[in-house]
Every structure is written in structure tokens, then in C-alpha cells.
Amino acid sequence: MTLTDERNAPEVRQDPVVGVHATARITAADRGGVTTLPVLDGDGPFELRRLRARGTEARVCIIGAMSAPLGGDRLRIEATAQQGTALHLTSAAATLALRGATSAPATYDVHLTVADRAELRWLPKPLICAAGSNLRQSWTVDLAATARLVLREEQILGRTGEPSGHVATRLTVRRAGRTLLAQEAEYGPGAPGWDGPAVLAGHRATGQLLVVDPAFENAPPPVQLFGDAPGDCHAVLTPLAGPAVLATAVAPDGLRLRRLLDTVRAAVPRSAPAGRQ
């Protein structure tokens, strides 16, 4: 038998366990035909503010109370729209992903649950991936059969005049327990071909707009192309195998990306949730 002197054992170096771990929770409930917010629980970098309601819709603004996400952060937002409610979520400013004190990636997970005859709009400001940042972002959405969803996500790859950070995203949408959409994307250093002609082709802003509406069961919007001059802004709107449409867009910068997605949104037919017709 051989005994090992622990004092002479090779040293194993690990990054220190650093970073913020925080979960913010939002719940919308129906009270006599008006959406209320019985749960509005901010945490860590997430400060939640009620905005003035629009009709029966409750509106919440997410305010960044500190710099986040940084390397090693574990951030999560959980939002639930209960039956018959209307909930609008936005943010006060862009989310800026930065290099942290550890080489570990940051994670930013969004979980949305929308019950029957409810509507949820996830419309925050964009994510900016600063040089040296490393972020894994995910959206997981569970919809009831009669729920409606409007979800916009935008990434700006690097601040003005700097290279992009690294970002990996995953979007999973389930409707009535069945998968409606599951996709992944990866941009920045270490992602194969991300800046080539088959992906971004030199653009530095990309985003998506997903609209789920039971009214699309019988009348889905047609495929449409949007864009400016060649090589500038481009977007395609396509119906999914379900009552939903997905627009994917690229642009040279965040301003033109937002304008393009706003144009796409205006072209998508709107309808009220079943409980409000």
C-alpha cells in the first residue's frame, strides 16, 4: 500500500465561486376583470416597478439595480399570467453583459407561464454583449391552448467600435404541453461561422419577434420579407406549425434592428384574447 503525502499533492486551481445568484418573480391575477400584481418580488440586480395600467393590462418595468450579468452570475426571472389576465413586461434600459471576475459564463434564464385566455408581452430593451463577456441566455415559455404571447428578443454584438462578446441563446416554447418552437443560436468568439454569410454576414444586431395567437389556427399570416437596401436590414416572417409566427431579423445596429422589428410587428394581425372578445 502506498501512502500519499497530501502536502506534496499537486495543487488543483479553480476559479473562485463568485457572482450574484438572484431570482425575480412576477404574478398577474384577475380581480373583477382587471389584472393585478399580487406577486412583484425583485431580487439582486432586478428592481421591479409597476407602471400605469393600460385598460385591463398590468405593466411592469424591470430596472437594473447593479451591473449584471457578469461572469459567474446566475440570474432568473419567473413571470406568470394567470387565467384571463394581460401582462406587459419591459425594461428601463438595455441589459449589458460584461466580463466578470471569473472565467465562468453568466446565465440569464427567463421562465414565462401563460394560462388560458391570458396574454403576456415580453418586450424588454436589447441585450448588449460587450467585448470579453460570456453569457448563456434562455427563454422557457409554457402556454395554455388559448393563451397569447408576444416575445421580442434583441442582441447587439459589441458596443460601438469594439468586438463582440460571446452569447449562446436557447428559446423553448410549449403550447398545451406540446413543443411549438425549440431553437438555439450562438454568436461571438468561439462560435463557428457566426459572422459568415450563412449567419450574420457582418451584421452586429440580430433579433426575433414571436407572436402566438389562437386566431392564427384558421388564418395564419403569410410568409413576408422585410428590409432596406441590399446588405442593410433584413427580416423574414414565417408561420410556424401551430398558431404562431416567427420573425428573424439582422441589421447593422440596434436602432435599425428595432425599427425593422416594429415594422414587422405592425404587419402581424392583432386579435383580443378569447376572454376579451
Would you mind describing this structure in some detail?
This is Urease accessory protein UreD. Belongs to the UreD family. The longest helix has 14 residues, at 254-267. The protein has one helix and 18 strands. The strands form two sheets. Strands 3, 4, 6, 7, 9, 10, 12, 15, 16, 17 and 18 form an eleven-stranded mixed β-sheet that branches. Helix content is 5%, strand content 49%. The protein has 277 residues and is mainly beta.
First-to-last CA distance:
80 Å
List the helices and strands in order. Answer: EEEEEEEEEEEEEEEEEEH
Bulk shape: globular
Strand percentage: over 45%
State the low-pLDDT regions, or none: 1-7, 9-15
Main β sheet profile:
11 strands, mixed
Task: Annotate the secondary structure layout.
Blueprint: E1 21-31, E2 34-41, E3 46-54, E4 57-64, E5 74-81, E6 86-91, E7 95-97, E8 106-114, E9 119-122, E10 127-129, E11 134-143, E12 148-157, E13 166-175, E14 178-187, E15 205-212, E16 224-227, E17 234-239, E18 244-251, H1 254-267
Parallel strand pairs: 1-5, 4-6, 5-8, 6-9, 7-10, 8-11, 9-12, 10-12, 11-13
Antiparallel strand pairs: 1-2, 3-4, 12-15, 13-14, 15-18, 16-17, 17-18
Features:
277 residues, single chain, mainly beta, disordered N terminus, eleven-stranded mixed beta sheet, 18 strands
